[in-house]
Amino acid sequence: MKYYTELLKIIEGGIKKDSQKVNDYATLLAKKLKDDGEEKKSQRIEKILMKSGSFDENTINYSRQVPFDSESKLEVATVLMPIQIEEKTLFYNESLRQQIDEFIDSYKESDRLASYGLNIPSTLLLYGPPGCGKTELAFFIAKRLNLPIVIARLDTLISSYLGSTSKNIRMLFEYAKKNPCILFLDEFDAIAKLRDDVNEQGELKRVVNSLLQNIDFLNDRSVLIGATNHENLLDKAIWRRFGTRLNISYPERQLRREIIIQILSDIGYNTYKRNFLDVLVDLFESLSVADIEQILKKSVRTAVLKNRETEFLDFIEGYFNYIATDVNLDGDPDAVRREKLKFLLKINPSFSLRMLGQILNCHHNTIRSDFKKIQGELE
Ligand SMILES: Nc1ncnc2c1ncn2[C@@H]1O[C@H](COP(=O)(O)OP(=O)(O)OP(=O)(O)O)[C@@H](O)[C@H]1O
Ligand SMILES: [Mg+2]
């Protein structure tokens, strides 16, 4: 049944007496009906919303006619309205948070900034390793600015048909110009990778040029966000087009601590010692937020499935299962411990004997004698 999701959400909102949810999804339903040519039905919902003072003109008038690639007939982007974006707790360090807030505030205060003759930053590049929150941040910004997010589908955009890629890019940017939005080019390096894929170098040049021109002519009612984890693949001229560039990298110590506390609290695991936290904070160095989340949740899940309380060592085991895929975890416990020890020393040679003892659940003297054995093996 069409619009089943919207109906469900409206019912949920009604039962929970969440009038915001009812309004949001009723607005979305009205918009979808309008897009389908069901003007009368849409207007009836609009009327009810207007009476209650919760009519959102922006959502209703937003054109859903996303351009499509003439070859594959697939849409070049997917559009999500702000109400469809889930609110999540996101973790970024203090300096990044400030820069994000400043970017958001600048857009919100664009009229005031313009009255001082100041430009509004409307291009943002997010770069850094996988799983640290680039995509999440683009969605978060759309939600905070109450703008639809138009997610470019790079696979469709980059048409195999010579010449169509530039045309698709132009159509997409024109769409973004007409409809204020966050235009999101995720995994943006795919365009740069054309360098290897396309036989004809000329095609790449045309695509990059068309991208540059389109970025230059995008008005500042829409915001362009690009994300990549291969920033070195990006053409220098494209890199320069982005007024704000944020490096979203692996969480540092303090942030790792916050992340662990929050995730464990979300999954109802609250009874641990401070010491336990210190060990995990150290162990999770150079891991992404996505990795940390996976390890913690999976460890708790494993214990729940075994019908017992989660213990500290479950998290350590979860870590080894997830990260150290090259460590043999079967066999003689002493040999396994030494394998784990070797792995730990590789990732962090400065772990203290005490810390290693805690991680591997043994006395630090055992670690000391393991050290000797490992040394012996090497000689
Ligand atoms: N900073 C963060 N705060 C909260 N959750 C995060 C954060 N970073 C990653 N996550 C979790 O990891 C998942 C993946 O994050 P996201 O897709 O934003 O990563 P990414 O940086 O875009 O990675 P990729 O380069 O692979 O696209 C999220 O859905 C979320 O659950
Ligand atoms: Mg991503």
Automatic annotation (TrEMBL):
What are the recorded GO MF terms, alphabetically? ATP binding; ATP hydrolysis activity
InterPro entries named among the record's database cross-references: AAA+_ATPase, AAA_ATPase_domain, ATPase_AAA_core, P-loop_NTPase
For this protein, the record's PANTHER family field holds: AAA-FAMILY ATPASE (PTHR23077), ATP-DEPENDENT ZINC METALLOPROTEASE FTSH (PTHR23077:SF198)
In what residue span(s) does the AAA+ ATPase domain sit? 120-252
Q: Which stretch is the leader sequence?
A: none
What name appears for this protein in its UniProt entry?
AAA+ ATPase domain-containing protein
* A family per Pfam: AAA
